[in-house]
Amino acid sequence: MTAATTIATGSPPDLDAFREQARAWLREHAPAPSPVTDIEAARAFQAALYDAGFAGITWPQDVGGRGLSTAYQQAFSDEEAEYELPTYPFTIGMGMCGPTVNDLGTPEQRTRYLPRLLRGEDIWCQLFSEPGAGSDVASLQTRAVLDGDSWVVDGQKVWTTNAQWADFGALLARTDPDRPKHSGLTMFVVDMHAPGVTVRPLKDMSGRAPFNEIYFDSVRIPADAVIGEVNGGWHAAVTMLGHERVSIGSRRRPKTNPLDFTAIAALAQRLGVSGEPATRERLAELYARERVLELFNVRLRQEAAAGIAPGARGSVAKLAGSMLARLAVDTVGEIAGPEIVAWDPEDTTGAAVALGINSTPSSSIAGGTNEIQRGIIGERVLGLPKEPSVDKGVPFRELKVGTQK
Amino acid sequence: MRLVLTEEQQALRAAVRDLLTDRAASPQVRAAMESETGIDRDLWTRLGRDLDVLGLVVPEEYGGAGAGHVERAVVQEELGRALAPTPFLGSAVLATDALLALDDEEARRELLPRLVSGELIATVAVAEPGTPWGPGATTATASGDGWTLDGTKTPVVAGDLADVLLVVATTPDGPAWFRVDAADVERTTLTTLDPTRRLAKVVLRGTPARRLESADPAGALERVADLATIALAAEQLGGLQRVLEMATDYAKVRVQFGRAIGSYQAVKHGLADVHSDWELGLSALRYAAWAADEAPDEVPVAAALVATFFGPAYFKAAEACVQYHGGIGYTWEHDAHLYYKRAKSTELLFGAPGRDRARLADRLGV
């Protein structure tokens, strides 16, 4: 079964048959799980996935997608959850940049970028956050100045996933500092191989470097690289963030988590403390919070299938996930005590637990801090009034932004 | 599993809410709370006769609606939301579930249709000090054709209102269930932390009793306890939603320092946390109710799960509701305290948070 044969038949395939095909294909083609180190192998896998009809399942047919409903994507995601596919380099393009180009791009942009993206020929990254613009991303300072028939970009982006492999980026830059902050932004497609683009790995507090920081030094971008409207970048950004929420929401948790109930219960057993009342209570509390969040996600999926949009409730899942991660850090500490302070160099459990502890702060920062999530829930779900804003209607160049000394 | 309500289930909710909006508004709840019986008989009759929601889990052959626990949970949610003054927990939950869990066909045929219509109120007397789910120290002694019971049961939900009590007592062969007529026991209405739910002490002194048939009395007790925990969680969910609404509505209109207090992050974020608990809890409750209908093997863990979650979550929400109302929330006149007391009392009625967690750990095998 290929995408081409399905498109030719015109009518959507039977959902159960589709699921069965996905299961059979994955059984045959899914590689053994391992971190992505060989990017060419990952691209080849993505191409094979596309040829089999499982990439761009919901994307429109005119750009190479299958034009099927989200039920098919859900079916594939359910099957895929059994594996760890090497599709990580393509997640930003597939989940965020591609759908935004599809929504807002010109016909030329759609046909130029989307088919290549689906086949893994181009890898994309998203260039929004800056050192001075995190939660308040609309206060970003990277500027793009029109010079003849092209734009010249200078500035710095940070926390950029997959930029080390990226061919293109969706860049949000300031094109008119005399307008209020939200209305002077423009989104561009930037060629990550262009002169003046520098990508550096950013080492985080866990010691790993899954993100990058990007420097733009007089980088030239052609005029036809604008996504949407000039100074309409905030609309484009909101569109992309909407896709990001869906993308994050549908992402499955890793199959093994050293700080989940099962892992910590096994650790307690190994350390001989599993019968202690305090241990049992802590484990029960962790289980309860974990299970309840899992059930909430099941409910959101069932509601989505019934046509009830998750809306801003994705923020509840995000917030609850991060609070669960913090609880797990407390729980593993209470149970293991000094055992997780130091361990033999060959003890992989010790290292995994330490990595879990040290990477947990990212869960309440990345993708919108807990404080931002609570603000979203308070304002968009509960309808509470916004705080009075001091920057509304003020030209960007008159605002205080970033870190002031 | 199914965690989304059907249209019929939503219609059921709307019907119950309409009735309670009309008949169980704050002044009516307060009037009942200060009355001699603590309940609103008229409301009880309407729930049974007009809405026919007292026998949702009862098969049609016994006069019930043949629906299920998901439907009953919807009703319980609404009752908890309104603090409706009824003996639902005692009669439509505990006693009804006990009759269905036991194997006494005669008792079912005689009692269930009258419980479903609301003309008869029954309850289960199992708790004794220190052992909310018994069997405790109450003993049953064979006496002629029947039995006599001796002991003290407390607290008994709706124990002062019930016409019939289903009592758990210890026989020489282990725990067993007995039917006792209210006229044969001494009852004391207890003074309660929560003024909207009546609890009683029941003293049995050589009380004549009829033993109820059961192949597995201890298993039946466990089933009754788990189902009551799930029903209570539904009530907690409804109350949690109501205090969240009260606090949110107030935070939108209460202005201090020139701004609605809900615009301050200190308040907004606290309410966001309560809302998150409501969303999470709703999902867990729907699951537990679904399990009660469809997946009996999952009920022990599901019941312990909702007990662990809802006790602290509802109380935290009720506490936040008082807090965000400030001084007015601390007055007798405002309803916030009724929910605060209901939340704390419900958290502790069948145990305590630590014991709920320990029970969950038992059932998870840790």
* Major pleated sheet of chain B: 7 strands, mixed
CATH superfamily of the largest domain in chain B, called what?
Butyryl-CoA Dehydrogenase, subunit A, domain 3
Portion in strands of chain A: 5-15%
By DSSP (H or I, 4+ residues per run), the number of helices of chain B equals 11
Total strand segments of chain B: 9
**Strand-pairing-aware structural class of chain B:** alpha+beta
Q: Which runs of chain B of at least 5 residues are low in confidence (pLDDT < 50)?
A: none
Radius of gyration of chain A: 23 Å
The geometry of chain B reads as globular
Q: Could you say how many structural domains of chain A there are in total?
A: 3
Order of helices and strands of chain A: HHHHHHEEEEEEEEHHHHHH
Measured by DSSP, the beta-strand proportion of chain B falls in: 15-25%
CATH class of the largest domain in chain B equals Mainly Alpha
Describe it:
The complex is a heterodimer of chains A (405) and B (366). Mean pLDDT of chain A is 92; it is low at 1-8. In chain A, strand 2 (143-147) and strand 3 form a beta hairpin. Chain A has helices at 3-9, 15-29, 39-51, 70-80, 91-104, 107-118, 233-250, 261-270, 277-305, 314-336, 348-359, 370-381; strands spanning 124-127, 143-147, 150-161, 168-174, 185-191, 197-202, 211-222, 226-227. By secondary structure, chain A is an alpha+beta fold. With 366 residues, chain B is α+β, with helices and mostly antiparallel strands. Chain B folds into three domains: 7-120, Acyl-CoA dehydrogenase/oxidase, N-terminal domain (Butyryl-Coa Dehydrogenase, subunit A, domain 1, Orthogonal Bundle), CATH 1.10.540; 123-215, Butyryl-CoA Dehydrogenase, subunit A, domain 2; 218-364, Up-down Bundle (Butyryl-CoA Dehydrogenase, subunit A, domain 3), CATH 1.20.140.10. Chain B has helices at residues 7-23, 26-33, 41-50, 69-82, 88-101, 105-117, 217-253, 265-294, 299-325, 336-349, 353-364; strands at residues 122-125, 139-143, 146-157, 164-171, 174-181, 186-189, 199-211, 255-256, 259-260. In chain B, the strands form two sheets. In chain B, strands 1, 2, 3, 4, 5, 6 and 7 form a seven-stranded mixed β-sheet that branches. In chain B, strand 4 and strand 5 form a beta hairpin. In chain B, helix 4 crosses helix 7 and helix 5 packs antiparallel against helix 7. The relative contact order of chain B is 0.11. Chain A binds chain B through residues 265, 268, 274, 277, 279-281, 283-285, 287-288, 291-293, 295-296, 298-299, 302-303, 306, 308, 313, 316, 319-320, 371, 373-375, 377-379, 381-388, and chain B through 1-4, 248, 251-252, 259-260, 262-265, 267-269, 271-273, 275-276, 279-284, 286-287, 304-305, 308-309, 354, 357-358, 360-361, 364, 366.
